[in-house]
Amino acid sequence: MRKLFFRVLAEADVPSNVEAPLQSLGITPPDDSPNSQRMDIYCVIDGHDYLLGVTITYPCRPDASTIPFHRTVNRRGAQLPGGKAAGLAEKEKIDKYGPAARAAGFRFVPLAKETFGRWGEKTMDFLKMLAKRKPRPTSIPADEDGAFRESVIKHWSQLLSVELTKHNAFQVASRAQRAAAARGPRRAHAFPEDSVSRGPYRPHTIPASVL
Q: Which residues does the annotated region (Disordered) include (predicted)?
């Protein structure tokens, strides 16, 4: 998803970098977690430094599972109305990175999306701002500028939705493989390959008797 936002920024004529180390920007990381040491995207818009944090949130309760991780992950967003989970994800990102970013002179924008496709309000506001910056082709007259900007947002939304669909499919395939592996090597071998994941999940070597 980061790479696609990087592409969107490029189309809006905004220079950017992905996975920028916070300390190199003069910002103290919020904690010692390896995932908290860098920002997804750093860019400059109209002379202002922006930090963009990309997050995908799961709005529904996980199904019953014998795997403890599946029973506890993302339960806070269960049974919330559309868009609420994305709003909570935005707030969580702002609470985590916002104060330190502002103290260092940066503007922080959370880019949140729900797995069912709903974008957070701040994400949509940011995309609308970028759409205003995208150069209008000379073949499009000035009186059609509004329609052009709307088509840009629609195009970007479609690209991001396709990327989200790929992400969801990969998560489902990975979860199926991990659940099968937890039930034993013979069950795990039922998933030798799939067209979504980066390859078969092999947590251990399958005994020769199973092959």
A: 178-211
